[in-house]
Input
Amino acid sequence: MKTTAIVLFALTYILLLAIPKRRALIALSSATIFVILGILPVTKVFSTVDWNVILMIAGTMGVVSLFIESKMPTLLADLIIERMPDVKWAIISLALFAGIISAFVDNVATVLMVAPIAVTIAKKLKISPVPSVIAIAISSNLQGAATLVGDTTSIMLGGAANMNFLDFFFYKGKIGIFWVVEVGALISTLVLLWLFRKEKEPISSVGRTKVEDYIPTVLLVGIVALLICASFIEKKPGTTNGIICITMFAIGLIRRFIKTKDKTTFITGLKVIDYDTILLLAGLFIVIGGLTEAGVIEDISNIFVNASGNNVFLIYTLIVWASVLFSAFIDNIPYVATMLPVVASISNTMGIEPSLLYFGLLIGATLGGNITPIGASANITGLGILRKEGYEVSAPEFMKISVPFTLSAVVTGYLLIWFIWR
Output
């Protein structure tokens, strides 16, 4: 059964990379085969899917669509164009902007908010939006590890380690992971400056767009505020964040219906959700759930323990870089969910402070997803936006930007966490 699961998994990801236009179908087909063969019991299919993530994506997509219609992204694009001397600095500023937002909002939501700005700028300048959208996606993945609400993996770590929002800044009398991520962001920004050094096309102001409806912006800010507040609530339902996002979207649709009296408001609103992305993620959750059920991921985790002996630095190194490798191809949410109890067990067995391994796991798993186009939900979402604009991005094209960015950020975080928490 394990061998079958591994073969199916490998075939799934090969097809995902080879046939990007059919990713949702491939993932769902693979998930179906996992269930038919009994690798994942039918009774566990529903619980395997992370509905909190699915609801967050759907709700945020809806609110962001209202945000886009309000013309606020266009106004932000105009403001950026006014202040940037050339395309290089426009791309960098958008990546930094995405990073700041992503520290407090889910990575996918960040891409959904900021990528349209990059597309708008590209259209106005008649250039390709591909480099800037890729930079936005990988930057949002990096900053997603900075705070408790920045990424689903951070939320899971907070629950496992009993950490609240402020613990990510200062924890047990030491500098928290937030500052480690920020140093990594600084180093990776220098890498982006080098990668885009030839993008010197001048940017000129084209005037400012007028925004007449600020309610969608308020809804987005409301999502951020409520997600932060929810992080302090103990023993809350697992779908709390998703419910927050869906609720804000519903409020936006109800307000529009009251304002326009248009009976098609709700149908039109549901159409803006990117079901291809949602179905892809749902399929991947089931596939990874099948691997977990078959014991494949647990076996991989046991390899860490057996290979490290009692050497703390070695086990830390293995966790960080193995997480980078696996997260480049495996969605980091089920991976982190599986590894958190393993890391806790390793820490207890070796008698060491678990924070070292927890933070190493978070850095490796969160940033490792940056390497490939399918390694993180934000990447999939960003490429989905580009696909709608008529741009198909190959894996080599994506990795030309993502690999140097990721390696610089991971190495920085790897070293800083060791020196702070060893």
Summary: The radius of gyration is 21 Å. The beta strands are 170-171, 174-175.
